[in-house]
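ENTRY TYPE: paired fold submission
RECORD: A
CONTENT: sequence, then structure tokens
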Amino acid sequence: MAGPVFYSDMYPKETRLPDYYNGKLFIYDWIRGWIKAVSMLPNGDFNKIEPFMEHTKMSNCIDMEMGPDGKIYTLEYGSGWFQKNPDAALSRIDYISGNRAPKVSKITVDKKDGTTPFKVKVSVDAFDPEKDEMTYTWNTGDGKTKETTTPELEYVYKIQGDYSISVTIKDKEGASVKSEAVQVYAGNSTPEVNISINGNKTFYFPGKQVAYSVTASDKEDSTVDKNNFFVSADYIEGLDLAAKPMGHLQGEAGISGKSLTMSLDCKSCHKEAEKSIGPAFIDVAKKYQEQPNARTYLTDKIIKGGGGVWGEVQMAAHPSLPRGDIDQIVSWILGLADSKSVKKTLPQSGNLQSTLGKPVKDKGVLSISASYTDKGGANIKALTGRATALLRNNKILFSGKELMKGFTTISFNEMNYMIAPLSEGWFSLDNIDMTGVGSLTIMAGWQQPPQYGFDFEVRLDNASGKVIGTGALNPPKEKTKGLGFGMIAVPVEAITDGKLHTIYVTAKPKDSKEGGQVGLQFVQFNLK
């Protein structure tokens, strides 16, 4: 598709594209995702074509315009037809000249906590656009800085506390960028939490209960306090945990927030239900529970300290306390005023309805969350370990991003269909536990019925791996025309190792003269 022609004298010099592109036509391709610049001869004939941002692939660019600032604006439709596309975008292309500062992707640590002396290895993922050599100045959060010529640092904290680590990266021209900070804690280790599922660890099966158990271990504590567990379950749609209800976090705070508070200096001035040097926490909760800004106010009070509300005694400031810790403390305090609204924990082990009594959804996920808060110690912060187990519907809808050969995908009405090739092909499904599975059911559909049919095989861990089941899609017995559907039943042999496998589904027509096009809609894993 043809875009705009750039004329440099029409736009401000400060923001426009380089004069090199004056008079050039920008074109773009819907399918291939590229943009190119076309040069013309003075008489308008074609001269040459050259890549523009050749390492950037567009997601079905549908329109391109030159803005009043001399920058290119693009509208990308996205990769799916007639659906909400996460890769749809309205974008602006800026030209940045001269030396550019390094770019930071992320900063990471090999562990976020541990007993003192606490040795941590921190690394940063960064690059310089001009590929210049870079230096790294690390702020270790304890008043010290360290400089390295490599993107990593090993450092030992000998004093208990929370520390915020960041790094400033500078190229040889002096241009620099500062990373985000990563938090570490010296003095305690986070307990490890494990959720065990008795049975299949990939799927829930509608109508069949799910048996679970939760355990924890802690390096510093010889015994685990069963009262410090919080377990919850939710039935959500999709694997986006951002959509998960806040019930677990609120319920967890009743344990982790209290333990954290009592492991800090808060207990020197406050008690849960009795007045001390400062007010009882329950009185604080009652005072602020109806105020819409209570959470913000209490958070600010913990960070900055102060006095005058409950008397003349000054409350100590806690500027280095991580925001996540403060959120837990505030949640626990406010929950004291209305304990009935706080979600109660499930037992450490038990059985759950597969959809928790809710209607079955094709993209429904049973999410089991568990947390355990350790005991901390004298001026040693209590830490909370967490784990989540996710079980998805035993009916797998296609994402359109499966690894495949021969198969192709189309999207219609927010559904992805896998089109079987007229020669042999395969697609794969990842992270599948075959425990208890006795067969697969594959739903197929067509606009015109197959003439000869297709043979299917299910293979383990490789497209040429062990065949664990076979099935067939036969042509309809009654000669029909138009839309139709059929099921492929594939009995499979028992796989009992409890491991996660990649399942390959192969398909080929029974006869090379097959002309019918078949689309697969889902694969369902069935219990024996």
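RECORD: B
CONTENT: sequence, then structure tokens
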Amino acid sequence: MTRKRWLVFRLLIGLICLLFGLDGLSAAAVEEEPTISLVKTIIVRDYKGLKISSTEYSVQSGDYILKLLKQRGVIDHLVVSEEILDLVKALNPNLKNPNLIYPDQKLILPTGPINGLKFLKKPAATGVESGIPYRLQRVKEGERLVIYLRREGIPENLIFNEYMELVMRLNPQIKNRDVIYPGQLVKLPRFKPSSVEIPKAKPSEQVSEKTAAASKAKSEAKAPQTPVPPSAKKPKTKPKKSTRKKEVLALKPPQLPETETLATQAALGIIFTRIGEQFISTGQHFLPLKSGGQVTLNAFSFPIIKLRNGHRIILDLGRRLPAQVIRLIRAEWSGYTIFQTKPREKLNELLDRLIKECGFPGLYEKGQPFIIEQQIKIKLQGDWLIFPRKIDLSAGQPVILNLPSSRLEGTFPEAAAYLAEQQVKVIDFYPKGNLIGPEPLSSLEPIETDIETIISKDIIDFIMALLELLDQKFTVDLSIPVIKDDQTDDNFSLSVNIPLYFNKNGTDYLIRFQKLSKDLEQILEKQGAKVVVLNPNEGAVAAARMILSAIGQTHKWGVTLKASERPSDRNIEFVIPGLAITDSNQSLFLTPLEIPGQLASLLAKQKFRVIKFQVNKN
């Protein structure tokens, strides 16, 4: 055989071996095939007979698996079947839990839709609709859809985008996402993404380049590798004991806390999320150390309150953090506080300490009022008045947090709605049942709040309208004789012109705008008449109050409305300018202001007939 033929023969033998080798590799569940170098490195792997194109991805802060799969076009919504998750785990053998990923972790992820992959159906106990696994939730009093999503740990910035849209797609019978009713069954997606975060250290606390390089090398060493056949594995040997200190201080997930602690955690999550802060209770939290190691916290066991003022509070509700870890965090992270509960501590006592730890720019405690001076004066009081940001303090827009003893002490929805228009948020948290309020206005029966209007051309016209409201008959432009000849009417007489006259309980009331002489007044009084002189310069309200005082009609200036049935030192009050008139038949409230609908509802609840008046100037 010539040298040329020998080379051709060897080439053919090599190609045959290569083909048989590739066929053997494809028999495995997932094996790595040659990569194709384009703009990115494409990794083609076999999964259940399908060729899966994928690329390597380095996890960023805030990522989670479902989000990444949607961005890559693998799924078209934020719900995924178990088979897709099985594929992800097959591509990443070291990934035990797809819900727990961390920044800088290397993942192999599909690059687009996977044709031919069958979606596994879920058990009928929960259900699958339009490819979305769901569970049934029976609505309790005071609950809303957004509350369910917050309980699932979904980030606040995503609730009203993909997630709420998904819930509405599952529940076409719900027309308004803010209106659900007690006893109603709603379908909720069966999934819960994780939150991960690595805090940024201060310049003085930055990890050295040498340490960072070592950490990077260590993380790369942990990246998914191609499985090694059992025959190729080295025999096990006993590891040598190392005297070097560990660089990573990882906390193993502790035992589940008691039911009471879980309830407290849920309560704090609801409260601080409603305040507007971020409550992280899923995934893991990483705190790098100056030594190059890091503390890893299971966020479910140790939730973190991420405040907008830059502060972070780690909640150790069961006092389970080791003292060594506490000392490390306090020594290296000045922006972090570790908050531990006390034995047999009640929720109000715990909240009192925790709120002070938050370092809010402004805080008013129980009994300390905050006044908003405007046409309708507002006196704010509650268990806590919190100004989460400096801008809230300067604008006078607090968050009012209350722990009512019962639903009867909850803030009236009308009052909360009016305060919301003033950028003041009210949070009522009921510890029994972890319920939160006030309930949305749309869930209440409508209240008649028609406001009447009186437009008068002058003061006398306004007084006539007032007497009509009081069902008082009257006469205008009357001439009343004061003195006359007893023998004949033709000899002489003395009369007085009266712009307005009426009789009440046997007394004649003479309404004038000019004073009479003392003698005439005495004569009229002897005849059972009472003269009321009004000063036009003092205005219509002063004239009305003078007449009401003269006839003994109960009245006062201004009405104070309370926002709830709580004690006065923890209640909110609205002081509305106007003339309040009460008697056994009715209660009238005359005001020159445009009354907001929410406060008009509260006035209607107090049985006030509300009249807006306007007196034109001559």
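NOTES ON RECORD B: Residues 89 and 95 are 6 Å apart (CA to CA). DSSP finds 15 helices and 30 strands in the chain.
STATUS: closed
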